[in-house]
Structures are given as C-alpha cells and as structure tokens.
Amino acid sequence: FRTVLGLGLVICCLQTRLRCPASLRSFYMQLAIVGTLWFQSLPVMTWIVNTVVPYYLRHRSVGLWGAILQSSAIVLLSLLVTSHKSSYHKLSHLSSTKDNLTDSLSAPSDSQPRTWAFGSSKVRLD
Questions:
Q1: b (16+ CB within 10 A) / e for 96-119
Q2: What region, left, alpha or beta, does residue 118 occupy, with left being phi > 0 and alpha being psi -120 to 50 degrees?
Q3: Which residue from 38, 76, 90, 125 could staple onto 114, CB 3.0 to 4.6 Å apart?
Q4: What's the pLDDT tens digit per position in 34-56?
C-alpha cells in the first residue's frame, strides 16, 4: 500500500511541477524525492531485515530501524517546508509580490490576490 502511495506522490508532484513557476520546480522535485523515500523506507527496510537479519532479531531490528528511518524522513520533510532558504518558504509568505505558491496553482496569472491587513496580521483570500 505504501508503494502505491509513494508512486501516487511522485506522479502528483511531477504533474504539479509542470504547471508551477520555475522558482518552485526545485521544491516539487525535492518533495517528490523525500516523500517517496519516506513512503518506501519501511517496506525496503523490512525486506532487507527479512533477508539479512536472523529470525530472532527481526522484530527488534524492524522496530529500531523503522523508527530511525521514519523519523529521519519526517525531519527532512519538515525542513523542506520550514527552512528559510527553501523556495517554498520564500513563496509562501504573504509579503511575496512576485511568484506565489497559492496563486501559481489556483488563480489566473493576471489576477491579484486579495490581502487584508489588521495591524501586524495579514489575511489572504484565495
């Protein structure tokens, strides 16, 4: 099941990557790679453990390495969207006046997003 979901993630990321501005293409490629690694790490690790590790150590090995691989992948995914250097972070802010994550996928290129400012808070209407 995870293999099918990983394949679905790659297909969706690549289709979205074709429609987005050039500034977001590297983000979608990174998302496809890291997301697929997250989906595929558990089945591949289980297969490796079943072929290499002795029977009486398999449960502990799958539990330990599964937790390490899944935690590492979640950290990489969270860094992908929270890092101040990522294209996602640069384009997801309301102050962005050029390419925009939401507008590139939903609104026509000639329309302007509506933003309401309330003091230091901003609300964006898509």
A1: eeebbbebbeeeeeeeeeeeeeee
A2: beta
A3: 125
A4: 888 888 888 899 999 999 999 99
Q: Supply φ then ψ for residue 48, to 5 degrees.
A: -65, -45
Predicted TM-score (pTM) of the model is 0.63
Q: Do residues 41 and 76 touch, judged by C-beta distance below 8 A?
A: no
CA distance linking residue 125 with residue 115, whole number of Å: 6
What is the reported pLDDT for 93?
58
Which pair of structure tokens corresponds to residue 14?
């690549």
Phi/psi class of residue 53: alpha, beta or left (left: φ > 0; alpha: ψ in -120 to 50)?
beta
**Please, what is the end-to-end C-alpha distance for the chain in angstroms?**
34
- Helix and strand counts by DSSP (H, E) for the chain: 5, 2
Cα 52 to Cα 22, 37, 44, 45: the distances in Å are: 44, 21, 12, 10
